[in-house]
Structure formats: structure tokens, C-alpha cells
Amino acid sequence: MAETAVRKIIHVDMDAFYASVEQRDDPALRGRPVAVGYGAKRGVVAAASYEARAFGVHSAMPSTTALRKCPALIFVPPRFEVYRAVSRQIRAIFADYTELIEPLSLDEAYLDVTANRRGLPTASATAAEIRARILEATGLTASAGISYNKFLAKLASDQRKPNGQFVIPPEHGPGFIEALPVKKFHGVGPVTAEKMNRLGIFTGADLRRQSLSFLQEKFGKSGPWYYAISRAEDGRPVVPNRPRKSSGSETTFAHDLVEPAEIEAGVRQMAEEVWDWCEKAQDFGRTVTVKIKYADFQQATRSRTLAAPVASHDGLIAVSLELVRSTLPTPKGIRLLGVTVSNFAASNLDRADGAETDQLDLDLGRA
Hints:
Elements: E1 9-14, H1 17-25, E2 34-37, E3 45-48, H2 50-53, H3 63-69, E4 74-76, H4 80-94, E5 101-105, E6 108-112, H5 123-138, E7 142-147, H6 150-156, E8 165-168, H7 173-179, H8 190-198, H9 204-208, H10 212-219, H11 223-229, E9 246-257, H12 260-281, E10 287-294, E11 299-305, H13 313-325, E12 334-342
Helix pairs in contact: 4-5, 10-11, 12-13
């Protein structure tokens, strides 16, 4: 790739965002182990402060497990409106440096600063200035990764957390990947990493030795992606204003639902919340999905794709109820219900990447 064509990508990732906001706003929480979520029996940790992480507490952990690991853990209920407001402050700072901003969630985003709107000497200097301005404006720290593509920038932002930054220049990209365990690759989950390990693939160097045909045979459509990233190659551009592809809501209940009436009431509540988003955004989808998680953690889904978008409150309620009724009477207690609308208008689906979502779409169980 010619030098003039090399992109300059920054991945900015806020440090323990939800928990840091809570510690900022309540001095009594500073320096203490904090979990954002609900401490009820069926609660889930949405975010953990670095003090809590020192005990092994992490996001998506059941609250009961988190409390066993850290009995002094303080649970704070989430305040998503506050997190969204802070996120808007941060994105306003990004906009001073580039128009090419791709949010991944409330607390992280890719920025393409190749054009160097501010005339700073390097992308690293740009990242440092952005982080300093975020700290000044919000009182929160951010980490950053700087590289020539999105995959490497994302990996780089984890190298100096919290409150640091790391650069992977083009001449170091392949070597960085070769030495990295595949389980550390963004997008390679535990199941895929375990499968790679069974095939003798433990590092980026091991992955690079595999042929494209072998990776396609073993990993299907993901094969070409693994082939490319093992060579530190990622041609995806930073795509601003990505459309949302779905809207969903789910809840873990304090007790297992068994009676049809309470199950239907739970689905109705989830559908109401989804409709509220659709109406405010004026985005309506054709596919409605009801998710069920039973007491033994087995899951089931029921979906229906309609000829036209569901554009009325009563219509969404009716389809959601019809879908859940197809599973009744329930063979066992239900601990979680969710409703999602997807398959939005075609104009909203013309980009390949996923949709912007909040930091964590988890069942934050309420007592």
C-alpha cells in the first residue's frame, strides 16, 4: 500500500465507563469496588470499576457470583440517560477532529483522522489531545489505540488501559499479530479460540500458516476474515452514522413465570418498551422476535416476518403475544423474556456493519 493511502485510525475506548460515571458523580464511591447493575438474586453486572475488577468481577457476571468474589461490592442501578448525555459530550469532541466517526457503543468509537483536520503532527498526538479534552470536559479517562486499520486500532486500545494509548505502525502490524494469542483477537470468541487451539492454532503466526481453503473449510464464511487479519489486513472503512438494525428489550424476572397471564404480561411490557423506541426514532421493522430463557437456562425464540413494517402499537403487541402464545403452556418456568423488532426499511440496511447499541445489552434483573 502506498504511504499516501495508509489510513490513520484511532479507536477510543472509555475506561470502565458506566462505573466511572457513577464514581465521578458520587465521591463516596471513589476508590471503592462498584458494579453498575442490580444486586438482586438474578441481577447481572453491567459494568465494574477497576477496584471491583481486581477481585475478578466483570460485566455479564451474575450478581451473586460477583458478591461472592467481592463481598464489599457496591451495586449502583444504571442511569442510561446520564451515560447517553456524557456520550454526546464525547462525540462532540470527536467531531472537532473528523467527520468519520463510527460509534460502536456509548463508550467507544473509531475515528479516521487521515485528513488531519487540526493539523497535528501525528495521529498519536491527535489521540492524546482528544483524551485530554475528554478528561477536561467530563472528568473521565479514555484509552486509545492508533493504527492503520480498525482491527489493529481496536487491539491497540487494550494495551495501555486504563488512561493510556498505544500505537501499531504499519511496519509493526504483522509482527504484532504473529505474537498475539488468537484468544486475544477481537471477534474471536472463546468457542472459536478453543476450536482453533484444537487445530493447532494458538497464535497469529499459527493462523497465518493456514491456507485460505483450510480456513474456509473449518470456519466457513469467517475463513477469509481470519486469513486477512492473520496478515494484519483489514480494509473496512470507518463508517459514520451507521443505521440501527434492530431494537429490543429483555428482562430477567425475580421469580420464574409459569402462568400464561403473567408470561403474556411480561411480553407486553417488553413490546411496549420496544414500541417506545420505534415511535421516537420513526423506524419500523418487519420482523418481530420473542426470546424466552427458561429456568434451566435453555433458550427458545419465535419470529415472524411480515409483508410490511409493524407501524402501530397495537400491531406490535398483537404479533408479540401471538408468538409467545405458540409456546404455551410452558413446559417449565421462564426466567427471561425479550422482544426485538428488526428488518427495518431497506434504506436502513445498506451498510455491512452492525448497528450502534448501548454498551451492554444484558438482562439486568430487577428484584
